[in-house]
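My main concern about presentation is that the manuscript never shows what a single data entry looks like. An entry of this sort, consisting of the sequence and the corresponding backbone structure tokens, reads as follows:
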Amino acid sequence: MLPPISFAKRQMHARPLACFAVFFMFGLILQSALDIPVIIPAALGISALTAGFALRKRNIRADILFMTFALCLGFVRMGLVDLPAPQAEDMYSVEFRGEVVSQPYIKQETGRLIMQFRIDERDGMPDDSTVRLYLRGDEDDLGRIEYGQTLSVFGHIWAADPITNPHEFDFGAYLLEEGMNAYATAKIEDTRILSVHKDMTSLLITVRSRIFERIDALFPENTGVARALLLADRSMLDDDIRDSFSKTGVTHLICISGMHVSVLATAILFLLRRIMDRKHAVAIALSALLVYGVLIGFTASFVRALIMFVIFSWAPIAGYPSDGITRLCCALFVTLLIAPMQIGDGGFILSYSATAGILLLYPALCELFGLTEAIHKKPPANHTLRLIRRFVLYFPQLLCATLSAQIASLPAIIALFGVQPIISVPINLICVPLCMLGYPIALAALLISAISLPLGTLLAHVPEMLFTAFSEIALHGASLPVTGVRIGKYPVILILLHSALILASSQLSRIRISIRKFLPLALIPVAVLSSLFVYISGLGYSIVFLNAEQADCAVIRTEGHTYLVDAGKDYTPAADYLDNECLSLDGIFLSHPDIDHAGGLTEILSVMRPNRIYIPEGWYAVNDISDTVLEGMALAERMNVEIVELRAGDVIGLSRNTKATVYAPAENLLTTDSNALSMVLFVEHEGLTALFTGDIPSEYEPCDLPRADVLKIAHHGARESTSPQLLEDVQPAYAVISVGENKFGHPSEEVLDRLQSIHANILRTDRLGAITISPSDDGLRIDTYLPMEE
């Protein structure tokens, strides 16, 4: 029998609950991809369940039939998910009334109040939709809006835009998953409070608000960290702190999870076991955790940890065996049965993959580092020696646990963030003890302050110092020149191989420990293979015109090299694209200093450092360059990026078979008009050609331009650009217009008429999304992110 089949049969026999949960999860995933009519898996599942019970009555094992039922149950559960229908179109200047159904909060970066709002009436007509409402205005006035209020609002209701670029955040899908159809915007002065409805949720929000006020008073220097750590509220975290936690891989420490639950439960049981038996102590501890869960909102990681604690604590009392894998899988099943859409949530995936890694890889790594014998060695009788032994073993064990979690969740980390923090392990070795020591003391200070504020304040000084140290270490770690290694996204085949190696390394495997302890090392070449796949896929040639709305941004990928032609606006799609495609950036061509061409430079530099930035000669003579562009150029200089000025006649080799020739600006061009000095770039690759024209006006267009297969239309199709003479010279087969919603009438009818007169195929980013042009057997291949209209 094949080893995988033998392994599966053995696990179905030894851990039926765990296998049932895994098959159920696979059913959810497959239904998400296939969208099969629910009646089919329902009928198959009922048949499998009936046959399974029939065989059990005859004392015949029917594990595969019960697992088939679990798989079908997953299909059915996902098929029954009822997501709200998205709003089809925008609605301007409408009056709508309804109820605030979430706790409002002010987003610090924008000053807007955000809430979930259930609409009952719109322009006098009955309605039944839920929106994400953004209110702007005076902060004191915004503070009057509370959960449970019925509001009358005059504003706009917007349909979420579809994603138009690869790797773009799907805001519409996010709204639907959160139970919302659209989003709305209004001013606070156009909002009236009609009534207030009080219920248990209102009481809970009031209690949370009071606790937040006390946390702010106890931990004035670390309000954001304390709120996140104690009540799972990260809305007050500074952006710098949030980014540093992400870059150093310690975000999990401010997400209440198994580590926090185990610390809290252990502390409660330690106190209670001194005055009562285990059964009653566990019951009280569980009650306390449930109350805590209500306060923090039962996050996915907390629910997982809570269910695992319940099984761990009650199984021995009830006389049932349990192991870590079964506990984890039971938590997985319960969570996904209640909320199947969690299967695609990043936090959910990271939480479960990291926990699975600790359960499966930790023993093998302990064996690899020679810790197993020391861990299982009989402790000394002397209490002091026992404490010393525990302290000596703590950090090696923490190292193994951290590595286990990081390795197991690596595919998820790369898929979500594109980077594996290389300093994560040493930073965690320092920050985990700080955080886990500060966490229970901070909770104790919070509880004691309810009885005696001075005593609680005194005790709070200890966690305050620990939280400060925790934050400072993360900030310093994030400021290092290199904080992470970029790895290509794992394809499905490598995710399966990664998972198989983890299972083979675990105690579930029958492979000898002398071999099994080295198997985690095989996960390193799997990560290398993933990056190799990305590199091989980039050995060809393509130009991707990203949809940067009313801005320009194109990516040239040629024979393993990557270049940008313009960077878009300050919120550029290029950063996410480059990051998620695991691309290194050889150079950036900035056609001219306008914000819609160079405004995204800062965001791109925050993701990666290019080797060079190419700008047109005369760039520094422009007087009205925006602060955003100036900040980007200043950042490039601080990062020691080489900045090269180009003029007509310069030739840049992009790769072995690709070169870029500059046709404008002309040498010694005297102008302060940024559009006039636009760089005109002619890119050639094995007979395939493309011409980039920036925003160059007709009167500054160079003469005798070569023919090109692809022409990037200047200035979003403004009538003052792309002259008939230029089109006669270039004769493009395809004309790409990078354009978005605007008040200028771009693209102009004149330019569209000129393009039609030469029979050019017009490709618009506002209608087609990202446009990818690559070689094909018969010339050029055109791929668009949105479907082309027939």
User: Anything to note?
Assistant: The mean pLDDT is 91.
